[in-house]
Prior knowledge:
Helix content: 55-70%
CATH superfamily of the largest domain: Histidine kinase-like ATPase, C-terminal domain
Largest sheet: 5 strands, mixed
Amino acid sequence: MKKDYNLPGLLFLPMYALLMATFLTLWLNPAFSLKHLALISVWLLVLAVTSFFAQQLLKKQATAKMRIFLFIPAAILILILSWVITLRISSGLLGSSMAWSNKWTSLAFVIVYFAGDYTISLILNRYKNKVSNIDNRLSMKDMELDFMKTQLNPHFLFNSLNNVAATIMVNRDLALDYTYKLSDMLRYQLGISGREIVEITEEESFIRNYLDVEKLRLGDRCTIEFIADMQSPKITLPPFLLHPLIEQSLRQSQGLNGRSSILVKLTANTARLNLNISFSNPASPAHADFSSRGFEMVSKRLELLYPGRHSLNTGKNKGSSVIDLVIEL
Length: 329
């Protein structure tokens, strides 16, 4: 997860404070010379660092990661430390007696500096967030257009309809079940039009129907197993977020010779969603034109929807390929 260190505030505020300090010193000490700029630079650097730590404390307190009885003493300690440093440096600029006589002015300057730093950082971060949100919306729209083109591969639909026609002649009940599952999938795809989120149970039902249809289509050529544990059925997520990974894994598991297998585990609670897919690696892949576009698209969607709150990893385990997705909710 990326840390927000308020770098814009740290870069712009010292320039602002340098002008303030220069005018203040010229007013208090007309004999001010350029050699004092080095001392002022060190002073401003120290203030910038202490201001940075003060803002981090404020963020932790705002997100309930720090108790209020710890935050207040820490904030007061940082303020006093900055005030003492300011007095020490101002004594080198103005002389000890004048620095002490203007001690309350030094304290006011430190408070104004911290307040100004926080205000400007807040404004810059809000502007940055607005620009980032606009970019994210544009990226999401572009991906949604691409994603709509890939929902339920047309070859899958054609093959499924052909299987229904062939199964009717052999097992009417099985063909009827096949048709119901396929219609549920199409109904779900049409029903999510315009919806930004769906419940996890809806996504689970679609995945189960998809794998059941594929199980009927592939028969003994592929062993398909799906395990789901929905501890919190009201969890929501964007539609078709998980399906591309499963479809890609299933296609990748199929070989020209031998029997393939795929195991899909989906678990979800109030804190975390986990999708783990383990599938066989055929020596002679059935789909030589295999593309990882689905994986890349899901990765981009996750980066926009759950920045810093997800992990998507691939690997090998005992001769099988593994895809593991974790989303912190």
